[in-house]
Amino acid sequence: MALRVGDRDATALLALPAAVPPSDSDLTGEAARRPAADAGPGARSPDAGDREPDTVSGAHARLGDQVGEQPVENDSKGVLRRHLIAAVIGAIALVVLATAGYLYWDFAGHFQSTDDAFIAARQFSVAPKVSGYLTAVAVTDNQHVAAGEVMARIDDRDFQVALEQADAQVGVAQANIQNIDAQVSVQQAQINANQAQVDQALANLELARVTWARDKPLVEKGWTTAQQGTIDVQNLKAQQATVENAQANLTLAKRQLASFGAQRKSAEASLAQAKAQRDQGQLNLSYTVVTAAQAGRVVNLTAAVGGFAQAGMALTIFVPDDIWITANYKETQLTDMRPDQPVTLSIDAYPDRLIKGHVDSVQPGSGTAFSLLPAQNATGNFEPPNDVALGPGMSVVPTVRIDPAPSLYERLTARL
């Protein structure tokens, strides 16, 4: 019984393969059993008991063949070999990744970067200082202009007439001054004449005094007539009056000269006012030509020939060439950031171009400390290339080198 069970188990195991080539003993056993089957259900081969052990041994032989085709020891060695190769590859990959990670960490530690940055400039509107019709517009949108280049012209005929009127007023004021100067000269001559009359009167007065002083004792002693004394006294009084009259005329002449001086000052003020009006007229005339105060680009041009330009009305927006980068770094990124450190700029509009610059300044406080201002932690200057158009608001990715020493990656690549 035990053998048959074993035979069944072995037969069952051997039945698992899809096809097993029959051995010679199997063919012999099959040929021996075929007549018995043909003999009918009740027939029994006389040699059946002798052939059963052969059938069992054949089953054992086939089981042995199957086990011999997949040895357990060889399969274990293959698994170990595959695991060893995978472990070696994994170790190499780990070393490569660790080396690359260290090189990147060391390289990145020399720089600070942010994507919260943009180009800034002090753009302003260009507006005329006088009103008038536009006779010419010499620029167009996005055009670059040099400092002093003409951008627009306003009809200047009214301003030319106003300037001529101011010139005429200057001439009138100058003529008034010249007239006053002539009167002053005449008055000065009159003063000199009055002064001579005063001197003459004083001389006559002195003579009258001397005469009276000489004749008075004679009259008192009766050596001369009383009439002579009367004449001397009257002459003295007359000469005194003459002196007072001459002095009064001299004083009046001097006062008139002072009056002419005041008139001259008034005329000088009128002349200054006329000159100021003339200068203003010249300025107004010059304002009819709108020029660029500095080099830059014209943006949003609204001026057109024939249009009426009001004083102070914007004709265009002007973006100067003096532009910079405003970068908003985190406060922790500013620890080692200092002015004049080199910066590499990547502009979103020109991803294939790298522009060099430097840190210009670092804001002394965080952006939240200035409620009316945006957070602007660092400002950088750079030299923009001439073959690209850069303007305020363009996004930039600045990378500041905070450690001037070369990283390990840079030293390795420098040797290659």
Jot down its keywords:
single chain; 416 residues; alpha+beta; Elongation Factor Tu (Ef-tu), domain 3; OB fold (Dihydrolipoamide Acetyltransferase, E2P); 4 domains; seven-stranded antiparallel sheet; four-stranded antiparallel sheet; 7 helices; 15 strands; 18% strand; elongated; disordered N terminus
Describe this structure in words.
The structure is a single chain. The chain folds into four domains: 2-69; 112-122 and 322-415, Efflux pump adaptor protein, beta barrel domain (Elongation Factor Tu (Ef-tu), domain 3, Beta Barrel), CATH 2.40.30; 125-155 and 289-309, RNA polymerase II/Efflux pump adaptor protein, barrel-sandwich hybrid domain (OB fold (Dihydrolipoamide Acetyltransferase, E2P)), CATH 2.40.50; 157-287, Helix Hairpins (Orthogonal Bundle). It is 54% helix and 18% strand. The chain has seven helices and 15 strands. The two termini are 82 Å apart.
The portion of residues forming beta strands comes to: 15-25%
Provide a count of the helices.
Answer: 7
CATH top-level class of the largest domain? Mainly Alpha
Helix percent band = 40-55%
Tell me the series of helices and strands, N- to C-terminal: HHHHEEEEEEHHEEEEEEEEEH
Mean residue pLDDT: 77
Span from first to last CA? Answer: 82 Å
CATH topology of the largest domain: Helix Hairpins
* Whole-number count of domains: 4
Give the CATH H-level superfamily of the largest domain: Helix Hairpins
Q: How many strands appear in the DSSP assignment?
A: 15
